[in-house]
Amino acid sequence: MNTVKSVYDGSGDGLIVDIQSHLANGLPGIQIIGSVGKSLDESKDRIKSAFASSKIEIPRKKITVNIAPSDLSKSGSQFDVAIALSILLESGQLKNYQFEDVAVIGELGLDGQIKSVRGIIGKILIAKKQGIKKFIIPDKNMKQALLIPKIWISSFKDLSDLYENLSRQNVEFTDSGTGLEIDIVKHQELNSVAVDFSDVIGQESAKRALEIAAAGQHNVLLSGPPGVGKSMLAKALISIMPPLSRDEIIDITHLHSLVGASNDALILERPLRSPHHSTSDIALIGGGQKPKPGEVTLSHCGVLFLDELPEFKRSALESLRQPLEDKLVTVSRAQDRATYPANFILIATKNPCPCGYYGSSKPCICTPLEIERYNKKLSGPLLDRIDLHVTVDSIDHSALLREGIPTGENSSKIRKRVIDTILKQRSRYKSETIRNGNISNKTLKASSRIMPEAKELLDKAAEKLDISARVYMKTVKVARTIADLDGSEDIQTKHITEALRYRPLSLS
What we know:
Helicase, Ruva Protein, domain 3, five-stranded parallel β-sheet
């Protein structure tokens, strides 16, 4: 009996499935077995229509299709083409073609078109990990698939074209080689959604904090009254982050295709995600009946911007603890469990009070109780996980339109310093992804030397401010990044002093 292989990525690390068809006398029709969901059971109707539209004869037999392993619940439309080929092989309409080392992926339209599927990169990586390196896929998935090195791909637009080529033994596979060539620098000199730092008037302290955040991958909370440029600063952060590497492009493109954003586009810029404060817990973290990535995962390798942080639901904010700490998020449901990467920089903003003007030149109309209740919306454990707390003050209105006023450095100059600092960290930690902001405490102690007078200052500040152990170590990590920007191998007193300026006095 002939077997056609396909890929299922809806359980754990994914697996290769074997599809077999059996033809018997009886009432003509297709029955699909093997613990299949509704979307997969509907495949039989898509296949019938696709055969008719492609002028391919469907056997007038009782057709039983088994998708193994049968003890695993499966769903999705990506098996359509593999099932169709299994039927053609078993009926003898395709002869002498061996599929043992080929994985077939694709959905069929009623008109016989082979439609693109979500998450093609993940499916190919699953199969490649299990030894399969040849793939038959939809034509529209070709661009994403070619990102993956050392595989062979054949793509088709419709079932009739695939059938004709298989019948003639004329299926040509394209060698992806080292992966699709991408001029990364050309596409990422400046992110298309970013604001240049030179467009932000004043706010030098906040700009400095964002440079530290980009260089060491630290989280930031910007506090200040409305209209002082907090959102503008957040959008400027993405402009000083380094270009994406090939591996990062593969990861981001795959994650975005899982949510159906695009099955054929390449994501070449670092993402900047800005969900509204009414966003649900599932939309923020990920999940659902069939788990999908949320905003924290779609921000992977980029920035998650949460504007007006206290307005988010308490449950949504508390769910950020795991991704902020572990740089990944695990979603468990009754039948499925998925782990997604979430290595992003969090930049959040907040007003000092509900009306927004406490401590500013404008009068505040809030009562002390309202201000206290407003600030208590953010828990201590969540604030502990934010490295840089920055107050953004109002600026002189006359400076906004004044000609000749210095605007400060542009993003390209700051970005060069950030990239140089990241290269130092790669060399120090022997890793492409580890930064000062996400190293373990053990690695920090082993790789960073803090001068005795700097440690003494930190110890005194920790005792006076009564900070937690987590905040203590985060302060050292921020100081490590400041030292790297300063070109110093040692953490000195001035680096600790600056790092302590980014801690709120009330945090414990």
